[in-house]
Amino acid sequence: MVDGRADRTLEALGLAAAPATDPLLYPGAWPAHSGLLDGDLLLPLDRLTHEDRTPVLAVGSNACPGQLRHKMRETGITSPVPMVRARVTGLDVGVSAHVSRLGYVSASPVASPGAVRELFLTWLDAEQLAVIDASEGVPLPYGNYRRAWLPQQDVRTELEDGTLLPGVHVYVNRRGVLHDGGDAPRRHPGQHALISELLASVPRLRQLFGVTPEEFCARARADAGLCELGTRVLAEEKLVTTSGLERFVRDQQTGSPGTGSSLLPPLM
Known about the structure:
This protein is 24% helix and 25% strand. The protein is an alpha+beta fold. The radius of gyration is 18 Å and the shape is globular. Mean pLDDT is 91; it is low at 252-268.
């Protein structure tokens, strides 16, 4: 590879694997620094803000370059995606109250006043936004996620150069999140640990998905109906609570941001 880019490949950086093809890797490897995802490369960025794109906060596998590349390639999208590290206050990473058809139990944002997390912001153009929306089930009446706008006064998002954004988009789980044994949402501990704990504590999940995380992932990937049953078990076992972000979700989530039908803020 020319131009000294060999060391910028996702493979060389350890960022190539996608949880979509290996569920126990979820949420996948995140970059150490901001970068421009351009096919198989993660290149340096020349700027951190992109006024012609939509800022979407990633709390799970959408911060994994390998996963983003996988989603874009499936739909033929080849345009680069800016990925920017951000210091986010007022938000934490919880556990979605659904079993994904990809074989994992994904992350979901939760309101957490005072919490500070280092997350990634993806700046998406219209085509890329449509792809990620679709992957999260936004266009579907009963999809797992809805895209919401979090204003600065509720969730503070600061970029590496000190830029404070007026707000960001994030995907809020329609089914809620898992709680910590009380009323508060639990934090996502990583896929293997999470599934091991769920299987150990919920006999009905073992009946559906087996006794190991590997069995769980294999069975979930093979059967969408089984995933729905597993999701129902989480609710029936009273493991679910609200994320605290439901008030930011609008009824309509599709269309171009800033248009009358989308009910979303304009592009920044």
